[in-house]
């Protein structure tokens, strides 16, 4: 199986015919591993856990500063309800990163900016509720997740991301140079336009 997808689990080995019980999960496509490691599974839910391990602080030798421990494991049957669409206690049913998100309403989030914006709004609302409840760390996590989806939306809709512009209709004589982000630029044009 080609190693073109994210979140595939693979058997680790030390060369030909040396498969053991160790495995690894990569977070990016790894075509250089084709014909070297056997793909035996895929992370279908909880990809944010894989990202948390990926982003764990490490010391020299790429050793985690805090241990990453798999406390329990098992195998789901295809009928297991946990494999159906997730229902989170806090109301956020989306992955933390757009690139990990399964299609929503049949659409790939990275190819449909309005879907990314919808997700960003929903996750932000969960963050707002958590903030009002005093759960600041959980709220921050939701805001960061919402921002990752919003960034996907803004990259595709607002271009260029930063630009120099002149305001020919500014109240003072001449033109005023300004470097603005697109949302500010829209506000500025609306004010003087």
Automatic annotation (TrEMBL):
Q: Give the enzyme's EC designation.
A: 5.2.1.8
The annotated region (Disordered) lies at: 76-110
GO cellular component term, pick one: cytosol
Keyword tags: Isomerase, Rotamase
Record field: compositional bias (Acidic residues): 92-105
Tell me the GO molecular function terms. cyclosporin A binding; peptidyl-prolyl cis-trans isomerase activity
What reaction is this protein's catalytic activity?
[protein]-peptidylproline (omega=180) = [protein]-peptidylproline (omega=0)
Q: So which domain of life are we looking at?
A: Eukaryota
Q: What does this protein do?
A: PPIases accelerate the folding of proteins. It catalyzes the cis-trans isomerization of proline imidic peptide bonds in oligopeptides.
In the record, the note on similarity to other proteins reads:
Belongs to the cyclophilin-type PPIase family.
Against PANTHER family, the record matches this protein to: PEPTIDYL-PROLYL CIS-TRANS ISOMERASE, PEPTIDYL-PROLYL CIS-TRANS ISOMERASE D-RELATED
According to UniProt, the name of this protein is: Peptidyl-prolyl cis-trans isomerase
């Amino acid at each position: 199986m080609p190693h073109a997808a994210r979140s595939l689990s693979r058997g680790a080995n030390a060369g030909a015919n040396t498969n053991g019980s160790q495995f690894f999960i990569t977070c990016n496509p790894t075509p250089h591993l084709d014909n070297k490691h056997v793909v035996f599974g895929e992370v279908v839910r909880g990809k944010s856990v894989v990202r948390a391990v990926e982003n764990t602080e490490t010391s020299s030798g790429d050793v985690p500063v805090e241990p990453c421990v798999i406390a329990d494991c098992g195998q789901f049957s295809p009928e297991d309800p946990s494999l159906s669409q997730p229902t989170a206690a806090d109301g956020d049913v989306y992955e933390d990163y757009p690139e990990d998100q399964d299609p929503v309403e049949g659409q790939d989030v990275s190819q449909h900016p309005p879907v990314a914006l919808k997700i960003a709004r929903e996750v932000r609302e969960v963050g707002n509720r958590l903030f009002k409840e005093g759960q600041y760390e959980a709220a921050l996590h939701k805001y960061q997740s919402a921002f990752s989806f919003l960034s996907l939306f803004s990259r595709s809709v607002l271009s260029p991301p930063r630009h120099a512009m002149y305001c020919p209709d500014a109240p003072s004589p001449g033109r005023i140079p300004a470097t603005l982000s697109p949302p500010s630029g829209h506000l500025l044009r609306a004010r003087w336009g």
